[in-house]
Amino acid sequence: MADIATVDQLDARGKRVLVRVDFNVPVADGVCSDDTRIRAALPTIEKLIDEGARVILMSHLGRPSGEGFEEKFTLRPAALRLSELLGRPVAFASDTVGPDAQAKAAALQDGQVLVLENLRFDKREKKNDPEFCQELAKLGEAYVNDAFGTAHRAHASTAGVAALLPAYAGYLMQNEVATLTGMLDEPRRPFVAILGGSKVSDKIKVIDALMDKCDTLIIGGGMCFTFLLAQGKQVGTSLKEEDWVERAAAMLRKAEERGVKLLLPVDVVCADKFAEDANTKTVSVDDVPADMMGLDVGPETAKLYAQAISQAATVFWNGPMGVFEMEAFAAGTKAVAEAVAENQLGDTIIGGGDSVAAVNKFDLADRMTFISTGGGASMELVQGEALPGVEALKR
Ligand SMILES: Nc1ncnc2c1ncn2[C@@H]1O[C@H](COP(=O)(O)OP(=O)(O)O)[C@@H](O)[C@H]1O
Ligand SMILES: O=C(OP(=O)(O)O)[C@H](O)COP(=O)(O)O
């Protein structure tokens, strides 16, 4: 991030500072039900408050139509939670760049905070519309991007507006990028990467990129069945992507050429249907019944994976090992989560998405070195893709 100015370089006193945060949080019955992303943005917000800035926060929440206000996507619950976390009042504008936002931004005093309504209520946000960028820029005198979770989007608030105001990276943005690129550039070895989730097609670029960096690659989740097919095994009715078998086979060859140890399941928990109350059977990967589907890695596999994880100096994990949302198929993911948590000597990095949900579900979050707030963003970064939200901050 050498070519990016950071919030520490911003003389914020008395300035209206427009801060892009990722407050895309889950909301249930009008209440924010997981404030992880809000907490993650606090260091930047608190620093600006302490310095006497007039803080204007902007974010999206969910994927509204872009045709105006929709109650279920309002940012009000996030603003309320922020106010509780800060222990001070937070103003809320019922629009994003309209009269209420303009008036409330102008009325801010030093050290006060305003949250704007959901950026995506205006369809110009996702289009990175130049006029919308201008209207956003008019609200502030400096711009800070702390929305790592949305850094892979080239939208008005993450990209366009950065060219119109002095632009800085917030602490979360810095920390996320430094941790993830540091892991890729200079991992302590052995470096064990664990990839799961549903599809090979979604993760192929990440698998490919990590293959160039890691010493051991562990594969689980629905996507392992496409790899098992590539090894000539029968996988019954398990999730499989026939079109990706050849790519999976190429990955197996690449691992061999590179000397990367690629670990695939040796046993799986099979079910007769995709349901919590399914009849289940744990079998060797050589004996998957034709009429059953694998929904979790088996206990022998979990042991094998845990052992590799225990020896790692760096662990990167993205994607569950099985259908962990259902109790009957959560054991593999839980075993991996516990093994990562138990490795207290290594750097353990959780790469967003469902693996974060799993770590939280098993109450292991505080035992990980780093948990990314971005699913898509961390995957794109690991894949070696430039993040528009980061690029836009470059001088
Ligand atoms: N064996 C499996 N068969 C079907 N779905 C699976 C299997 N293992 C994991 N999954 C599902 O994959 C989903 C997560 O996949 P994905 O969205 O690719 O991961 P992430 O969000 O971590 O990137 C979870 O909802 C989980 O239930
Ligand atoms: O939650 C987000 O991404 P993630 O689910 O990939 O972590 C970000 O807020 C981006 O949201 P978007 O995918 O609707 O652009």
Automatic annotation (TrEMBL):
Task: Spell out the SUPFAM superfamilies in the cross-references.
Answer: Phosphoglycerate kinase (SSF53748)
**GO BP terms:** gluconeogenesis; glycolytic process
Q: Which sites bind substrate?
A: 22-24, 37, 60-63, 120, 153
Q: Looking at the Swiss-Prot or TrEMBL record, what is one Pfam family this protein matches?
A: PGK
Which terms in the Gene Ontology molecular function aspect does this entry carry? ADP binding; ATP binding; phosphoglycerate kinase activity
Keywords assigned by UniProt, alphabetized: ATP-binding, Cytoplasm, Glycolysis, Kinase, Nucleotide-binding, Transferase
**Enzyme Commission no:** 2.7.2.3
Q: What is this protein called?
A: Phosphoglycerate kinase
Question: What's the encoding gene here?
Answer: pgk
